[in-house]
Amino acid sequence: MDKKQQYAKLIKSEAKRLGFLSCGISKAGFLEEEAPRLEKWLNDNMHGDMRYMENHFDKRLDPTKLVDESKSVISLLLNYYPSETQNSESYKLSKYAYGTDYHFVIKDKLKLLLHFMQDEIGDVHGRAFVDSAPVLDKAWAAKSGLGWIGKHSNLLTQQVGSFYFIAELIIDLELEYDTPVTDHCGTCTACIDACPTEAITEPYVVDGSKCISYFTIELKENIPTEFKGKMDDWMFGCDVCQDVCPWNRFSKSHNEPLFNPHPELLSMTKKDWEEITEETFQKVFKNSAVKRTKFSGLKRNIIFLKD
What we know:
By secondary structure, the protein is of the alpha+beta class. It has helices at residues 3-17, 34-43, 57-61, 102-120, 137-143, 190-194, 212-218, 240-243, 270-274, 278-284, 294-306, and strands at 22-27, 72-79, 92-93, 126-129, 148-149, 155-156, 164-171, 200-202, 205-206, 234-236.
């Protein structure tokens, strides 16, 4: 076994020990196939008011422009599928937002993994990314064999579906690289048929400006009135395309205590949400990704669903 293989094996073994679902490695370089797709998506205005998507176009497509001397992209998946879900008579929250904000949880694990490499391998430098920088997470995860990008544009794996976070370490060390897997969506159109706002305009293309997650999290203005009655009671995010995907039959509960919800969250009813105070919001969503929309944003979403 040569050094590249040996190091790759070592890194994957430590990633597993840290609780990651899986780890794949690909060679850092220009994402040739993604470039025209991203350009078309932006030109078609499918990013809506997410103007930040227009920034750093070159860096999005080439990590060597983002991290000096980078040689490898290590992609990691972390499961967030909960063992229990919300009360059925409730406004809905995307499952990824039940517990502590994943940015904190994953960043800590990535730092530990980088320190491990420095201790075990030597002079390794790099940066950790958790969807807060111009990195095409799903493209890199697919390139490194962790799954394929489904018709709903989420990463999918045959073993565990799609309820996981994707993160990366981009480092200056050459490693043994993995190869992509094949697409297993077949003729299935469950996600396209089920999308409440018809945001999946064609297989593998999502119009972000029509997505419920965009309306409830990203959009700072009022939600367009033409989507009244089409939001399927989602007040933060949306899981419909994942919930209906046949591959998610294989989802297993996570074992990360930090992703467990505040005890009150699962039992809250529509009435509880309609009457939520800022104090309850701060208590239930302490260190949560829901803080991104703020109390006022969540109230706006609930009022839109209620009226």
